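S.,

Sequence below, as promised.
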Amino acid sequence: MLTLAVINQKGGVGKTTTAYEFAYGIQMYRHTSAASGRSVGGMLLLDGDSQGNLTLATVGRDTEGMHIAGEKSTKPYAARRDLGITRIDCADVEDTGEQADLSYHPAEAIDYRIIDCPPALNKRTLGFLMDADEVIIPCNADVFSLTGLSDLLDTIKVIKKQANKKLKVAGILITSFNPRTKVGQIFCQRIEDIKERYKVPLFETTIRNSVLVREAQALKLPVQAYKKNAPVAQDYEVAVKEYLHI
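The prediction came back faster than expected:
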């Protein structure tokens, strides 16, 4: 199982949206490109933020559509099978770095797990980083969102060296981007400086700002499923393909 952590200790950078869009985009591509008769493994979304925004965006606060995790487990979990998402779990532990119970029925093999990490470098976030294979760092296209990015990259470097040698940065993803503004141009220069200093990838794809993202969230849909031909939906589709190297 490959574990992808979506992380930034600053809130409001599109972290939850990115986790949801990548989960949907990865599954849609895998299903449409799978050879005839080839099974596609399940996708698990882990809501690691105590605010529960990912859970709210996918299934809401009620228990409609909840399932039981397995024969020996009484822990409920949610699913959005219409979107290719096998399971949605909440990391309801306190900041101990522990993971949620990931038991599931053997018939539903999970081979992708995407974690929406908390907007803080706390023990829970460090636990997720120690468990992850890759991280994506969404970064809002304003100079203030760069605050703390160096600290995050330093932390990832230390964890990779001391606790999780397989951990790597899949890329920094620029969100809410408008290249025509002066702020956007200044941001691009500064993010390039960080890329060169830390030797980390930067997605060539940028995500444009759009009210359609909020509309899709209100309907509990990824924007790729809500308005697939909209520019912001196409941005996420291209970003997913860039991540998958296709």
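The helical segments are 15-33, 53-58, 123-131, 149-162, 182-198, 212-218, 223-226, 231-244.

Coffee later?
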